[in-house]
């Protein structure tokens, strides 16, 4: 079935929909990206236009289709030990003073396919060998969370992992010669993943954390949504805990409940 090109009016409908669901501001320049990522959904449902697909999304005929759309439109570029200065800060200035009687908990709040969460886990395994610790990873996309739980990555993705961690915590892929590596079970068993929409109320059941990484996601939010996300996260950060954003992000004008430690690194008063 031949598909009609997306109109400006149809694109505006999708912009409003992804903003309502995920808080993401899809710029006008992203029209080609949207078409490229959603076109196959039109083919799958044998639809002639993006307007038809929008109407399908707005109906209850396919209740899982909105999640599929979110999975396709959310950007998930990440890699191990990305923006390594943050990991250096944790190792050098935070973990050495942690009370060994208490479990250290870290949250990778936009964990994508798991590289950030497993990087945190490797860091904690090295820095706190005799302490209790755990990592929680979350994302809005169920598709990338499935990849995170599988913990299998192409070999060329291991470049950022320190040599000592690579030797200890990265195992050959299941078939040995398939060009992949697997995160070791002793790391995987300390990392838990769940779907969380940061723009909505967050359940207290996930507990409290010593550090929350929410990096390279708020660049997609407008100021109002950033304030909402930070307000949702802060109750889950322990007093004295650290809140870390991406190198191109800032909480200036977003919240007064955190103090600046260094650029992109904030702390909740004790």
Strand order of the largest sheet: 6-2-1-7-8-10-9
List SSEs in N-to-C order: HHHHHEHEHEHEEHEEHEEE
CATH superfamily of the largest domain: Vaccinia Virus protein VP39
Profile the largest sheet: 7 strands, mixed
Cα-based radius of gyration, to the nearest Å: 20 Å
Low-confidence stretches: none
| Integer tally of domains | 2
How confident is the prediction overall: mean pLDDT? Answer: 93
Q: Concise description?
A:
38% of the residues lie in helices and 17% in strands. The chain is of the alpha/beta class.
Would you kindly provide a written description of the structure presented here, covering whatever features stand out?
With about 270 residues, the protein is an alpha/beta fold. The chain folds into two domains: about 10-75, Orthogonal Bundle (Chemotaxis Receptor Methyltransferase Cher, domain 1), CATH 1.10.155; about 85-265, 3-Layer(aba) Sandwich (Rossmann fold), CATH 3.40.50.150. Helix content is about 40%, strand content about 15%. It contains ten helices and ten strands. The strands form two sheets. The chain has a seven-stranded mixed sheet with strand order 6-2-1-7-8-10-9, covered by helices on one side. Strands 3-5-4 form a three-stranded antiparallel sheet. Strand 1 (about 105-110), helix 6 (about 115-125) and strand 2 form a beta-alpha-beta unit. The radius of gyration is 20 Å and the shape is globular. The protein starts with 7 loop residues before the first helix and ends with a strand. The model has no long low-confidence stretch (mean pLDDT about 95).
